[in-house]
Amino acid sequence: MEMKRINENTIRVLLNNEDLNERGITVLDLLNHNQQIEDFFYSILEEVDADHQFQDNDLVTFQVRPQQDGLELYITKTDPASLKKGTPAGQPPLDQDQITNLIKKELVGRDRQESHPDHNQENNVSAGDEPEAAIDNPDIEKNVCVLRIDDFEDLVALAKSARDNINAVSDLYRYRNNDYLLLTFIDDGSLSSSQLKDQLALAYEYGQKTNLMPDVILEHGKPLMKQAALELVRTYFE
């Protein structure tokens, strides 16, 4: 772990994957558990704030950015006097959804760049480039497959095999003590019925086909990784 004091109010901490492993933490843990995020961040703060200048301040915020081999963490304390004066106090802390979205976008963008280094997104704007918009668009047809994942290693293996072989939005949910992967294939005209059949066949090699309706999972399940589950798993478990 590396620590650098940026200024009197900000500490920059670099944690590689080995540092995270030593603490029993993965980036996926940070995506899924609010309390674990808070406990982990404050444990790092205790390690780097030997003189307690930050720990004794109630106005401490954490900003996190994923790196190729770990995390970059910014710890910032706000001077209460600046709040009384009405002066800017810097960026507000990230909430859980913002942290998840930040990490997801960073990893998905990196994964696409690694898979298609010469790909010009401006010349190929499709529903898959903006999954959130496509999924919410009632005019775009979709095929949703629900797989039960019995072993996390199966999910890791599927994520690796899916690169360049499965073109779908992937969501991981926990429902009734089981993990379910939802694969949403967006019919934007680029996926033929035979290609869809081949991609589903690959997915069925690693997950169990179920009769559960996607709406049941979406309404009653707990989201673990949304809209980029395979990309996240592939990035951190290859």
From TrEMBL:
It holds the Pfam family MecA. Gene3D superfamilies: 3.30.70.1950. It comes from the Bacteria. Residues 109-121 have a biased composition (Basic and acidic residues). Residues 109-135 are annotated as: Disordered. Belongs to the MecA family. This is Adapter protein MecA.
